[in-house]
Sequence to fold (108 residues):
Amino acid sequence: MITVSENAKKQAIRLMSDENAPNGSFIRVGVKSGGCSGLSYNLSFDHILNDDDKIFEDKEIKIVCDKKSILYLAGTELDYIGGLNGKGFVFKNPNANRTCGCGESFSL
Fold:
C-alpha cells in the first residue's frame, strides 16, 4: 500500500486542477534504475491504466503503480514539503536503506 499525506493531497489536487487534468486522473508512481543511489523515483499525473497496474486510494487520492515498482514502494508515504530548502513531492520509503542527498534516488 502507498499512502498520501495531507500536504501531498492538497498539492496534488491543486496541481491537477492547474494542469486541467482529465476527470479520473491519478498519481502514477514508479521506480527505475538510475540516480546516484541506484534507483530513482518517478511521479506523474496520468489517466490511462495499464494491465499490470496496482491501484491504491488514500485520502480520496488515487495512486497507481506498476507491479514491478510496488515491490520497492510497499509501505511508502507520498508527502509534499515546501520550505527554504526547496519544495516538492517526497517519498518516505521504509524499504530504502540509503538515499541520496536530494532524496530522488535510493537503494535497498
The helical segments are 6-18, 67-73. The chain has a mean pLDDT of 85.
